[in-house]
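Reminder to self: tokens first, then the designed residues, so the page reads top to bottom the way the pipeline ran.
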């Protein structure tokens, strides 16, 4: 299956989301790896990656990540991207051989634009209301922008006509292991299925 635009799904914390998204043709999956309750361990990510084929993988990181984890991420070939918030770009100085995805709030773009662009990101995941497109359009001329969708737009044309590289979605927790409601993801991904 293929989709009509590039799609990244972040906050993947379980095999169910990863397999569903891969089956729907999602291009990139990003996993929050770390020690907090809303993150998964690097070992769990590696187990999931062995069961899923197709998408590229990103690891979501924050400034409080330990150096040992940074070193392991740098060494693992299965991880193609590192995804950080604009405020956390300083951790990228220690990473090598990884492409960068930066989450940007529209309000941060003006003050952090130069620091973000200095990281040579492969993508920006843009967080704002659909009313604030001007900065996103400007940014998309510099770096491919994936617009973050938190709700299903009124129609397919509402987001496929946007001058962006694609969209970004978020996974959710399982109801219980192996049991999951995909309605939020399915509503958007089914609209994007190529004929």
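Designed residues (195 positions):
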């Amino acid at each position: 299956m293929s989709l009509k635009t590039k799609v990244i799904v972040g906050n993947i914390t379980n095999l169910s989301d990863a397999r569903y998204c891969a089956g729907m043709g999602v291009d990139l999956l990003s996993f929050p790896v770390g020690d907090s309750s809303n993150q998964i361990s690097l070992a769990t990510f590696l187990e999931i990656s062995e069961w899923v084929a197709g998408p590229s993988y990103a690891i979501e990181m924050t400034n409080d990540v330990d150096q040992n984890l940074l070193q392991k991420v740098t060494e693992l070939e299965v991880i193609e991207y590192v995804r950080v918030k604009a405020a956390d770009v300083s951790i990228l100085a220690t990473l090598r051989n990884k492409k960068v995805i930066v989450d940007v709030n529209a309000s941060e773009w003006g003050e952090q634009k130069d620091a973000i662009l200095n990281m040579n990101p492969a993508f920006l995941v843009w967080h704002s209301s659909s009313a604030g497109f001007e900065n996103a359009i400007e940014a998309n001329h510099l770096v491919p922008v994936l617009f973050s969708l938190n709700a299903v737009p009124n129609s397919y044309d509402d987001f496929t006509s946007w001058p962006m590289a694609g969209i970004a979605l978020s996974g959710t927790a399982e109801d219980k292991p192996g049991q999951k409601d995909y309605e939020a993801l399915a509503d958007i991904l089914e609209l994007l299925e190529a004929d």
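The longest helix spans residues 42-51.
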